[in-house]
UniProtKB/TrEMBL annotation:
<dbReference type="InterPro" id="IPR011707">
    <property type="entry name" value="Cu-oxidase-like_N"/>
</dbReference>
<feature type="domain" description="Plastocyanin-like">
    <location>
        <begin position="10"/>
        <end position="124"/>
    </location>
</feature>
<protein>
    <recommendedName>
        <fullName>Plastocyanin-like domain-containing protein</fullName>
    </recommendedName>
</protein>
<dbReference type="GO" id="GO:0016491">
    <property type="term" value="F:oxidoreductase activity"/>
</dbReference>
<dbReference type="InterPro" id="IPR008972">
    <property type="entry name" value="Cupredoxin"/>
</dbReference>
<keyword id="KW-0479">Metal-binding</keyword>
<dbReference type="InterPro" id="IPR033138">
    <property type="entry name" value="Cu_oxidase_CS"/>
</dbReference>
<dbReference type="GO" id="GO:0005507">
    <property type="term" value="F:copper ion binding"/>
</dbReference>
<dbReference type="Pfam" id="PF07732">
    <property type="entry name" value="Cu-oxidase_3"/>
</dbReference>
<dbReference type="InterPro" id="IPR045087">
    <property type="entry name" value="Cu-oxidase_fam"/>
</dbReference>
<keyword id="KW-0560">Oxidoreductase</keyword>
<comment type="similarity">
    <text>Belongs to the multicopper oxidase family.</text>
</comment>
<keyword id="KW-0186">Copper</keyword>
């Protein structure tokens, strides 16, 4: 099965703690949308870069066997995604399953919000009936100034 997502990246004025500032968002969200797939699924993610800056997305914890060019490490496994362009990632999690995360791998963009959860389910999970629901919570530091001024 192919799971297809589009992440539209942009700077958005938000106030997650009541203090308004520019946040690097995906689909207008902070943190970005959760990406879900099942073990063995093909994962296709179109990244539209409207940030006004270069970027890449790293799929943290995904082995990328045979698809290292989709690992998202700027300048090592992938060229930067220029502003105003779209790049499509196309990979499989193989036999992996679990809770992972995706984030920008350029400068400190993920500190300013460009990140989200990546969940790969095992349809044959032996514990599937042992819990009522699944709840994913992501945590991070939050600053009132953009990260570039703090680095």
């Amino acid at each position: 099965i192919t799971r297809e997502y589009t992440l539209t990246l942009a700077k958005t004025e938000l106030a997650p703690d009541g203090f308004s500032r520019q946040v690097w968002t995906s689909n207008g969200q902070y943190p970005g949308p959760m990406i879900r797939a099942n073990k063995g699924d093909q994962i296709v993610i179109h990244v539209q870069n409207n940030l006004g800056d270069f970027t890449t997305i790293h799929w943290h914890g995904i082995f990328q066997r045979g698809t290292t060019f989709y690992d998202g490490v700027a300048g090592q496994t992938q060229c930067l995604i220029a502003t105003g362009t779209t790049f499509t990632y196309n990979f499989t999690g193989g036999e992996q399953y679990g809770t992972y995360w995706w984030h920008s791998h350029f400068r400190s963009q993920y500190v300013d919000g460009l990140r989200g959860a990546l969940i790969i389910h095992d349809p044959k999970d032996p514990y599937l009936n042992d819990y009522d629901e699944e709840f994913v919570m992501t945590l991070s530091d939050w600053h009132h100034e953009e990260s570039e001024s703090l680095v």
